[in-house]
Each structure stands twice: as structure tokens, then as C-alpha cells.
Amino acid sequence: MTSRIIIFDTTLRDGEQSPGMSMNLEEKLLVADALDAMGVDVIEAGFAQASEGDFQAVRAIAERTRNAVVCSLARAKPGDIERAAEALKPARQPRIHTFISTSDIHLQYQFRLTREQVLEIIRDTVTLARRFTDNVEWSAMDATRSDRDYLCKAVETAIKAGAATVNIPDTVGYATPADYGALIAYLKNNVPGIDKAVISVHCQNDLGLATANSLAGVLAGARQVECTINGIGERAGNASLEEVVMALKVRKDLFGLETGIDTTHIMRASKLVQSITGAMVQVNKAIVGANAFAHESGIHQDGILKNALTYEIMTPESVGLSRNNLVLGKHSGRHAFREKLSEIGIQIGDNGFEEVFHRFKALADRKKDIYDEDIYALLDMESAKSDAIQLESLHITCGTLGPQTAMLALRVDGEVRRVTMEGNGPVDAVFKAIAALVPHEARLKLYQVNAITMDTDAQAEVTVRLETPEGRIVNGHGANIDTLAASALAYINALSKLKMLESSRKIHLTEAR
Length: 513
Ligand code: KIV
Known about the structure:
There is one protein chain. By secondary structure, the protein is an alpha/beta fold. The chain has 18 helices and 14 strands. The strands form 3 sheets. Strands 1-2-3-4-5-6-7-8 form an 8-stranded parallel beta barrel, surrounded by 8 helices. Strand 10 (about 405-410) and strand 11 form a beta hairpin. Helix 2 packs parallel to helix 3 and helix 7 crosses helix 8. The longest helix has 30 residues, at about 485-510. 3-methyl-2-oxobutanoic acid binds near residues 14, 139, 141 and 204. 3-methyl-2-oxobutanoic acid binds near residues 99 and 167.
């Protein structure tokens, strides 16, 4: 058995499928590039049949991805499989991932199919997918609540029809490590031909056991792990990529296995997904939480100062954090800034570097200490430079004497528009002013403020989520040392994305005529 674990990332499919986490095309491409650069083996880019947007995203990711296999999900339906194959045409290494349930609960109440009918569907759909690519993955949805011997038959059928990977999802997050490991071992020992396929694990986190279950599956012989950055995904999420990968790396003595992940990219990928989705990880989240490498108690600090090994099982550098987080300030020059970028695993070309360096200097003029998190925020705001709506100026009057007023100027498609509005508090005044200059029908679903670092001069990072009357969701982001300016930036970033969505819809409608 090989000692290499295949890391299958489903941030863009299972992750994106969770409430409020939808990403636009540009955001999906940023995530896909980050996954490819970090060494993910398979990127599940979406579910091509789900919508025109999903189809375009899978296609665009297939076109640009250099190293990873690019995969599209497809239900066990010919139309889905054909659509996935079409979207994956430009991929250097395409994979079609098709699935159907195997548990009696699902067969009886959801699909209204007999066990025999499902076996036939598996045979037909895997055979059809194989007409488009040799790289076909088949998943047994709700595998952990399926009858074991029937599951064995279903897996055997998929392998006989040509599936190269068989995935055993714990769809409802019901398993525990001991019984999930035992299930994988049972399949290994009882499915004829199982050695012809890679066994994959896909664990949901409803009981907080997704990472533990995935690792138990690996110990029992699985060689692919499906996971997401920050563990995002349906309901309580999926196994988190950073936890699985670092557990395999830190406990190599126990697992004796390797992944192809460059773990120094982990922090950057985590910050990117947090900033795009607005789903901030808790401070004590393993590996990527703000406190994951913070040592507060005196005894621990004493030990760390004497030798980091006393209380650290992995170094911050190994996940892309610099140990000395507080280094840059207004006197730091190009050399120090470049060093810092490379220390936190970021490569930028010369033109891009000059641009970011100037923005770093502007920030350092207003903020004494520049932390790694500030640099991540600077980079994440780069894409907003091309937004159709730009903030020209904002002046706020606020405080206990009232009224709270926002004097705002925006540049919308090149034209400057101005307004002054009062509100119930300064944020309300700013948002009313923006809505007056850019009227729209979307509803505000989330307004979230997060201090990027800990000082009183910290930058605020704001997420604004808007929902259109048709139910489409966009997330806007803004970061600024002034919380109200960050709020305005986040709101206009979301509105710019809405404008983009509208114009791409118009293009599709015109094309369809
Ligand atoms: O949780 C699940 O069962 C899935 C499959 C489609 C792999 O997401």
C-alpha cells in the first residue's frame, strides 16, 4: 500500500454549498490558485450541473489549474455527468465525481428506489462517466448508515464499472473514529477487487469528529482524504485540511504517511477563505486560530523561552506564520518588506510588489506596528481596486450629541456622486448614504466587524453580505484603520460584485437569444 495520502479539497464544492459561503467566479479562482500552489492533489471545483455560474467556475478552474486534478461533482444522472465532462474539457487532469445514496433511509424516503435499482444506476453512471475520463470517483452517500454488506456490493459494482476512487462519506457526521475505522477495514477485507481502487474518506463534523474520523479511516487503509480549508462545509462543516495535513505531518511517527502539501501555505489559504466567505475561525481553532501558537501562562512562557520544544508540537513557521510577528513599521524599507512576504509564503512580481509596497507604507504612516495579519489584509484588498464603485471620500459626524451624519462621495462607473445622510448611528448613516447613491433591491444579511490585530490602532476588517430578491448572495470586504471607512469599503465591494453579477446575467441573456 502506498504511503502517500491524496488530499482532495472540496472547499469550492461542499464548502461553498454551506449557507452564506457562496463565492463569485473571481473569488473561486483566487481559492483554486491558492490550493494549486499549496500542493492539493485534487480540487473539487464545483457541481457543474447546479447552475450556469457553477459550470463556468468549473470550466475556468479547469483551464488555469497547472498541477492538481480538477474535479466536478455529478449526481447519478446522465445529464449531470455529461455537463461535468463538458465543464472539465480544458482540464489537464479531469475527474468526474458521481454519487448516489446507499442507506435504506435514503433509498426508501428520498430516492424511492430498491437496492437492486441503485446497483444498476451505479453500473450505468460509472460506465457513462468512464467514456469521458479514466479518472472517475464514485461516492456512496450516507455510507455510514448503510447496511455493510449492501455497501460492499455497491462499492464492488462501482469498481467493476471502472471507478478508480471509491469514497465512503459520513454524510450526516454520525460515525465515531472506532466504527468509521472498522467500516473502512471491513470494506478492505470484504470487497472483491478493492485493491484496484483508492479508498477515500469524506467526513462531516456534526459531532466534532470529522478530523478524527478521517484519520481513523486513513489508519484503516484509506488513501484519499476529502477536506476543506478551515473545515467549512454543509452544517457543522467537513474535516479541515489544515488539521488533517498537520496531524499526518506532526505524527509521522504514528502514521508513517506523507502528503504533497507545502504546509507553509496553510495560513495564507485560511486567511483567504476567511476573508472571502466572512466566516472567521474561532480564536482557539486548531492550527489557524489566533491563539493556536499563543502561550499565555507563565509556566508555558518560561518553557518556550528556554526551548520552544517544551510546549510546541509544531512551529508557527511550518504553517506559514512568522515567529516574530511584530516586525514592520514606517521605517521598514523594500528589502524588509520583501523578506517579510517571503517569510509568510507570498510571491509577487515586481510591478505588483511596488503597488503593495506603497500601500504598506501608507498604512505604516497611520499605524505603528504592522503585523502579518495586516499584510494579508492589504493583499486581500488588492482585487477591490478594479471595482466599478470606488470610495472617493467619507466624513462622519458622530458621538453622543448627535445627529450622526455621513458625507459621502463615491465614483460609480467613473462618475463622482455625492450625498449627505443622517442615520441611527454612524454605520447606519454610511449605509444609507451608499444606498442613496447606488440604489438597489438587495437586503443586508450580515454586517460583521473584526479587529485584525490587538492594538487600538488595529485595522478593522468588515464583511457585508447582501442577498438579492432572487436569493443570490454576495460577500463584500473592507479593511481600514477607520472602522467606518472599512464598513463603507465592504458595502461598496459587495455592491460592485452585484453589478458584476447583473452584467454577466445580461450577457448570458443576450447570448441565449
Ligand atoms: O457528504 C456527502 O455525502 C457528499 C458526497 C456527495 C461526497 O458530499
